[in-house]
Amino acid sequence: QVQLVESGGGLVQAGGSLRLSCAASGRTFSSYTMGWFRQAPGKEREFVAAISWSGDTTYYADSVKGRFTISRDNAKNTVYLQMNSLKPEDTADYYCAARFRGSIYYTVGYNSWGQGTQVTVSS
Predict the structure, then answer these.
(1) What φ, ψ does residue 89 adopt, rounded to 5°?
(2) Cα-Cα end-to-end distance for the chain
(3) What digits encode the pLDDT tens for the residues 23-51?
(4) Cα–Cα dist 51/59, whole Å
(5) 77: alpha, beta or left, given left = phi > 0 and alpha = psi -120 to 50?
(6) Which pLDDT belongs to residue 90?
(7) Closest C-alpha to 46, from 68, 63, 21, 66
(8) Could you give the 3-state DSSP secondary structure of residue 15?
């Protein structure tokens, strides 16, 4: 497993941008598919984006496609989530996770999680 620490959350107005970072410890980071999930108050944690170990393949939820971009820098053991054109409905705690096996779209496929970073988008 890897240890994950998210940062970069905050308060932003609708239409604004934020860049989340997830720093990983452990020498095996580059072998993991990494994902971002989010959880709004009273709702289940949902998939946002994922990126293959090489960075060649990315996946997005329909709700963020065209607005969010996931990327990674294996030399820095870091995965990023660039969020543009933010909407109030993007307000949530955002979590990065390392995929263990199975579907990339569901939390059960991930076995390492960060503590989360809060994103609040005001209208």
Answers:
(1) -75, -5
(2) 39
(3) 999 778 888 999 999 999 999 999 999 99
(4) 6
(5) left
(6) 98
(7) 63
(8) coil
Round to whole Å and give the CA distance between 100 and 76. 21
Taking only the tens place, the pLDDT of each residue in 79-109 is: 999 999 999 999 999 999 999 888 899 999 9
Distance CA 61, CA 88 (A): 17
Provide Rg for the chain, Cα atoms. Answer: 13
What whole-number distance in Å separates Cα of residue 69 and Cα of residue 1? 25
3-class secondary structure, 108: helix
Q: Which pLDDT score is estimated for 56?
A: 96
For residues 57 and 70, is the Cβ–Cβ distance under 8 A?
no
Q: What pLDDT was estimated at residue 86?
A: 98
**DSSP assignment of 27-93:** TTGGGS-EEEEEE-TTS--EEEEEE-TTSS-EEE-TTTTTTEEEEEETTTTEEEEEE-S--GGG-EE
